[in-house]
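Working notes for the structural subgroup meeting. M.R. asked for a predicted model of this chain before we commit to crystallization trials. I am recording the input and output together here so anyone reviewing the notebook later can reproduce the run.

Input as submitted:
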Amino acid sequence: MTIAQVCGAIFTDAREVHAQALDRLEHGDIRDAAEKAWCATKRATDALILARTGAEPATTAITSNGLDGLARQDASVKTLVGRYYSRISQLHGACFYNGVCNSETERRIRETADYIRDAERLAYS
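Returned structure, recorded in token form:
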């Protein structure tokens, strides 16, 4: 498979996991929905990094560093940075792990679709 094909598969996976997040949200399981939305965010970010660098991050720490590096090189990527870190903190950390889900949690879960779309656009620009 080419890098573009692998990226496409990862973006497809991100969209599928996000759909699962929305399903869990509709069934009242906000914690699982939050974790799935975080996973979708990470997958989309991994695909962006792979598309831009040729290497898929192996860990979350490498994903975070990779996104920061891309943002230093390309101002358009900076639009993702705050959104990425709010999801790792609020969806993954606060809501999923600690059960502290607030009024912004559902919004972040739903808006993950926008994040995926924007990451995909940036991957191929």
